[in-house]
Amino acid sequence: xxxxxxxxxxxxxxxxxxxxxxxxxxxxxxxxxxxxxxxxxxxxxxxxxxxxxxxxxxxxxxxxxxxxxxxxxxxxxxxxxxxxxxxxxxxxxxxxxxxxxxxxxxxxxxxxxxxxxxxxxxxxxxxxxxxxxxxxxxxxxxxxxxxxxxxxxxxxxxxxxxxxxxxxxxxxxxxxxxxxxxxxxxxxxxxxxxxxxxxxxxx
Amino acid sequence: xxxxxxxxxxxxxxxxxxxxxxxxxxxxxxxxxxxxxxxxxxxxxxxxxxxxxxxxxxxxxxxxxxxxxxxxxxxxxxxxxxxxxxxxxxxxxxxxxxxxxxxxxxxxxxxxxxxxxxxxxxxxxxxxxxxxxxxxxxxxxxxxxxxxxxxxxxxxxxxxxxxxxxxxxxxxxxxxxxxxxxxxxxxxxxx
Lengths: 203, 191
Known about the structure:
Low-confidence stretches of chain A: none
Radius of gyration of chain B: 17 Å
Radius of gyration of chain A: 18 Å
Mean pLDDT of chain B: 86
Oligomer: heterodimer
Low-confidence stretches of chain B: none
Helix content of chain B: over 70%
Structural class of chain A: mainly alpha
Number of helices of chain A: 8
Order of helices and strands of chain A: HHHHHHHEEH
């Protein structure tokens, strides 16, 4: 395989290796926090922060970590940044922090982050790991935005807390409850398969 | 009486998979056959119970008295990782048949967010020691129940004609959604 250009390193996270729709990683936070767009954005940004800084640190100290304890070392690095993100949200955005509850600390076990360290940052330069982390985060935020927009608009008739659909609209409460999350994500994953199939046919 | 309510709500109402969305990876990954789903559920329940005990002790005897709450995330995840390793070695020594049954599922549990979620939720809700243990056992049983039901449905699903794009993860998520809908019916049980 020829080495990817910097641009491709970034865009692969958006579609071909999109963590949610294509790799099916990090499902727990995706399903849990997408009942409102604002929560989805907060979760996406917190994860982005952790992923980017963990990737930079792991790729710069990769030669110092003995192979046998690498997973444990990655987890300590990740946990450090997760703690920072958690404290930051609790201090500056207490309401969002309360809404997200245990899901911010749970970023530490988000398989996207550990997966990128193991599959990418431990083998590539700092610069490439940074671009990769940026692309993956963008893909993750994109997926969270799509899912949370659908759920908030249909489930509450609002977007970012503002009235979006008119008063004629009877909100489908089920969309902001757990079943709505599962079913919407299932349909979205099926849709990405269809689109991917169409793209392949056209080539 | 309150403990019974907590136990039942951990199994049926606040089900880890269908209400908190924790442990989705094994729920989707290891739910193709009923027996492997059962082993996974067993292993998770076992580790959850021990984790509940150990993290409670660490949180209340070491972290809280010294104002070190901000070390919760780091210490919990390290405890869970080493605990799973210890449990694995212990079971291999004491009960080879049980080890055979749990097999590869034990190491996978380290990255299972349900375990970490349990430790964090118990700390967040300020449960007493007994409550934490009851919560741990109940959540484990709830996870087992959900994953076995899912495996049963998916074994049937193999025989049915699913539209091409929905095959695999798509239909599994929709089935999970319908299951979550059914479990919502339990929420009126305990006020």
